[in-house]
Amino acid sequence: MVARKRFGQHFLHDSSVIGRIIDLVHALPENNIIEIGPGRGAITDGLVNSGCNLRLVEIDRDLVLELKKKYGGKLEILTTDALKLNYGNFGKCLRVIGNLPYNISSPILFKLFGYVSHIEDMIFMLQKEVVDRICAPCGTKNYGRLSIMSQYYCTAEKMFDVAPEAFSPQPKVNSAVIKLIPHDNPDRSQSLICLKNIVTGAFSQRRKTIRNALKPWLNQEQLASIGIDTTLRPEELSLKDFIKCADLVWELQQK
User: Fold this and answer.
1) First and final CA of the chain: distance in angstroms?
2) Domain ranges of the chain
3) Would you list the DSSP string of the chain?
């Protein structure tokens, strides 16, 4: 079957990479697993044999027909868009894995972050650049909105890189596998909307000092009152710093 560009399809075929992912997932019979974008079933094959409760989410109807022929009634196949799925319908301790379409990987991640109370862990193949941004520590060039919002919800760990030759057709970028585990006792902002707004605003002007980048929300005195060095640039503020800023914005809005 020919990969469809509009679905961002790149089929994984390297057996060593497939084996490493299956070992990393280490599926058990009691696991409740959703695989997004199973393609031709490269990873699915290793999961079916574990006896876990497995559901596949695939938008390509032709691939769905192929998967149904291959697996019969061994698993549930949902012919739908991963961005439209209500993941809360599948119970707690959900494990989500997949080789995500690179053109919509960030929207899928943000969709899943809304269900972290239902999720045990997530293991994804993503564009290497995206993985590096998710895992980036404060003060580095890759640190930004995606880093902060991902780390707000999860502990993120890059597991290994994957070369373009592992796929057919080959993508024009390098890939990497990442593991995300929702925080047990997370630091939470009083207003997620405020946090999203100031993080987005700050990194849309990342070369400005935080004093100027956050001027629409907080002045210099207000930032100093919560211990923020106003001469720093956005990439030099930690997640906790941004939460403090968001909470102050929220408190001021309540007055």
Assistant:
1) 60
2) 7-182, 192-254
3) -PPPGGGT--EE--HHHHHHHHHHH---TT-EEEEE--TTTTTHHHHHTTT-EEEEE---HHHHHHHHHHHTTSSEEE-S-GGG--GGGG-SSEEEEEE--GGGHHHHHHHHHTTGGGEEEEEEEEEHHHHHHHHPPTTSTT-SHHHHHHHHHEEEEEEEEE-GGGEESPPSS-EEEEEEEE-SS----S-HHHHHHHHHHHHTTTTS-HHHHTTTT--HHHHHHTT--TTS-GGGS-HHHHHHHHHHHHHHHH-
pLDDT per residue as tens digits for the range 32-58: 999 999 988 999 999 998 999 999 999
pTM for this entry = 0.91
CATH topology of domain 7-182: Rossmann fold (3.40.50)
If you write DSSP's letter for every residue of 180-197 in order, what string do you get? EEE-SS----S-HHHHHH
Given this structure, which CATH class describes domain 192-254?
mainly alpha
Residue 91 amino acid letter: G
CB 154 within 8 A of CB 181: yes
Residues 6+ apart with CB under 8 A from 214: 198, 201, 202, 223, 245
Question: Please, are residues 149 and 113 in contact by the beta-carbon 8 Å criterion?
Answer: yes
Tokens for 105?
């990987």
Question: What is the per-residue pLDDT across 140-156, written as a single tens digit (0 to 9) for each?
Answer: 999 999 999 999 999 99
